[in-house]
């Protein structure tokens, strides 16, 4: 059976024809390349042997890897090589649930300690987001060739919503530290729940792309 590989996410499909769209990243069949053709292999093996020609010695020339032209290319190359985005994204994904839980507890039990702890957690998320977003854009452009299928659009939208909600929450608290004690406290909680949900969606899609399921 033929094997087809998605040129964007490297998913491998087995069948006579490539799928209409990649089940992982959603790109069309035109993005699939044929890895091997067993029928052609059998035909080659069935061909009668011909007298071997005089062996010619040819020195294989290895294609050198492109040398980074500047510091930026060197840094981005290292980020891609060492999977900077999957590594750095664990920081906000791990801290955000704690921040939201602390805000909910502060809202329910009128605890200034919990709200301050939640705010400090969000500050760490804000500090981590620039690296997370930059490495994510870099990986999307270089590894996934800037594909704009539905799954990538949703992931970009989810990351944008997460970043926006986080920034608004931090600024809102700085302007009004008593927001959770006001009549708008429920809206502040809702904003943070949307932030957490969008981060979860982006993380789920990232896992789907990594594990190809």
Describe the structure.
There is one protein chain. The chain is mainly α and 213 residues long. It folds into two domains: 3-39, Rubrerythrin, domain 2 (Single Sheet), CATH 2.20.28.10; 82-211. The chain has helices at 38-46, 71-81, 84-88, 90-109, 112-142, 150-175, 185-211, and strands at residues 3-6, 12-14, 32-36. Helix 4 runs antiparallel to helix 5 (112-142) and helix 5 (112-142) runs antiparallel to helix 6. The chain is elongated and about 80 Å long. The two termini are 21 Å apart. The mean pLDDT is 89.
Topology overview:
Blueprint lengths: L2 E4 L5 E3 L17 E5 L1 H9 L24 H11 L2 H5 L1 H20 L2 H31 L7 H26 L9 H27 L2
Antiparallel strand pairs: 1-2, 1-3
Helix pairs in contact: 4-5, 4-7, 5-6, 6-7
Instruction: Kindly state the percentage of residues in helix.
Output: 55-70%
Question: Low-confidence runs (pLDDT<50, min 5 residues)?
Answer: none
Rg over alpha carbons: 25 Å
Q: What order do the SSEs take from the amino end to the carboxyl end, as H and E?
A: EEEHHHHHHH
Mean pLDDT: 89
Q: Count of DSSP helices?
A: 7
Q: Describe the main β-sheet briefly.
A: 3 strands, antiparallel
- Work out the count of structural domains: 2
Distance between the termini: 21 Å
- State the strand order across the main sheet: 2-1-3
What class, by secondary structure content? Answer: mainly alpha
Provide the β-strand percentage band: 5-15%
Number of strand elements = 3
User: Which geometry do the CA atoms define?
Assistant: elongated
């Amino acid at each position: 059976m033929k094997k087809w590989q998605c040129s964007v996410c490297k998913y491998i499909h087995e069948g006579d024809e490539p799928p209409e769209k990649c089940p992982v990243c959603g790109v069309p069949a035109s993005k699939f390349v044929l890895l091997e053709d067993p029928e052609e292999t059998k035909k080659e093996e069935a061909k009668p042997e011909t007298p071997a020609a005089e062996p010619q010695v040819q020195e294989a020339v290895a294609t050198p890897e492109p040398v980074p032209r500047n510091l930026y290319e060197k840094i981005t190359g290292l980020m891609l090589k060492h999977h900077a985005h999957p590594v750095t994204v664990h920081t906000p994904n791990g801290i955000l649930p704690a921040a939201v839980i602390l805000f909910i507890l502060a809202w329910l039990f009128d605890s200034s300690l919990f709200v301050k702890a939640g705010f400090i957690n969000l500050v760490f998320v804000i500090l981590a987001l620039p690296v997370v977003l930059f490495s994510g854009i870099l990986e999307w452009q270089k590894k996934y060739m800037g594909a704009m299928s539905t799954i990538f659009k949703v992931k970009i939208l989810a990351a944008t919503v997460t970043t926006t909600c986080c920034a608004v929450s931090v600024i809102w608290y700085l302007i009004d530290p008593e927001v959770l004690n006001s009549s708008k406290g429920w809206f502040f909680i809702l904003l943070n729940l949307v932030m957490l949900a969008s981060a979860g969606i982006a993380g789920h899609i990232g896992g789907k792309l990594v594990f190809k399921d």
